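This part of the workshop introduces the protein records we will be handling. The question running through the whole workshop is how a given chain folds. To make this concrete, we reproduce a full record directly below:
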Amino acid sequence: MNRQESIKNHLSNAGDRPPTQLRYALDGVITPEIEYAARKENLDPEFVRSEIACGRMIIPVNIKHPEAYPFLIGRNALCKVNANIGSSQVVADPEHEIRKLDVAIKYGADTVMDLSTGGDITAIREAILRHSSVPIGTVPVYEAIARVDDPSKLSANLLLEVIEEQAEQGVDYMTVHASILKRLIPLAAKRVTGIVSRGGSLMAQWMLEHDEENPLYTHYDKLLDICAKYDVSLSLGDALRPGCLADASDEAQFAELEVHGELGRRAREANVQVMIEGPGHIPLHEIEMNMKKEQEICDDAPFYVLGPVVTDIAPGYDHITSAIGGTLAAYHGAAMLCYVTPKEHLGLPDEDDVRAGVIASKIAGHAADVALGKPGARDRDDAMARARFAFDWATQFELALDGDRAREMHDETLPDVAYKSAEYCSMCGEKFCAMRISRNLRELAK
């Protein structure tokens, strides 16, 4: 689809209404973005329009980001995966971030969040936006804090200024920690790990130092005006997400969830698309309850979860612990999984970490989609099964989530070209290959 032409048509036909996908859906209009995203997932465009109109689904596409292709986030669409990239105050290399972006998109990330906190943040984000074919998200408070010498000097005006600049630049969705209120901060004091959200801890620090309410909450209407102007989707950040199993499903987490519900309704009333961010560390047996609670309190808005990470003892392998939790979360309604890399809790991810994190979350989301019987979800699996039985190695590599890695592993022991048509691998060899034997049995059984 030609996004630039679609955007021009939206703006010329908008009149007095904001050019948001939600507003069009409420008015009964099936936009080119809805049509494209629906067809891509074998869904009826009218069904997608109705899901967006009621707030169960969003299409995060800023009118200033024509490079991005539209897609759906909602529990009745395929489960999506987000990858986080971005500079730090220790490492700030724009070219490195572009390489990580390329890796994330190559291996299947549906969105990418630029969480840069160091270097020329605006320039890094501009490079990412102009290079990206997928929606880009940010956490605006990071840049706002980077612009002041002391976090206590942060102001509502600066926050809104940064948010408008990022929206004008083309950011498709923004995580805002507007739901952590001053009265909720003491609830986190009882925790083992306190407030583990970077944005949440910064907002809590500001509120306590100024003895004032969260400026993102008190100026929420102004924030919504900016989002509606550019069709920026809001991702209501979970500042009080649990950072360990001991803090999971506590009073602080669910108190903030109630505020999420309030702010989500206000966003939709302002024609702004919204999703809700969900918990980080949750034991396996509490995941279903958490997913259902969000659906009830937040009117079934799309739930975007970090992991969940189901055990605290696997640093270096947290892409695995999060994939275990992500599968169950997606099965019970999570719409998008935020990847976790092997570097979680340890350091800034590099390209290899991004690759591992994306693939782990893609496995989790896809497994849930298959189990839920979503349209077309199992087609690739069935094609893989046929290719395996036919010893069609080239097709197997093509269908694999990480075909490069599959090819590398196959070729470690059978590197010659002749083995690309061999009817066995190095695990069983020719004599013990069960599939080869089964093919011969079929012939004998005729």
The longest strand covers residues 80-85. The beta strands are 57-58, 73-74, 80-85, 111-114, 136-138, 173-176, 233-236, 274-278, 303-306, 336-338. The two ends are 50 Å apart (CA to CA). The CA atoms of residues 107 and 358 lie 7 Å apart.
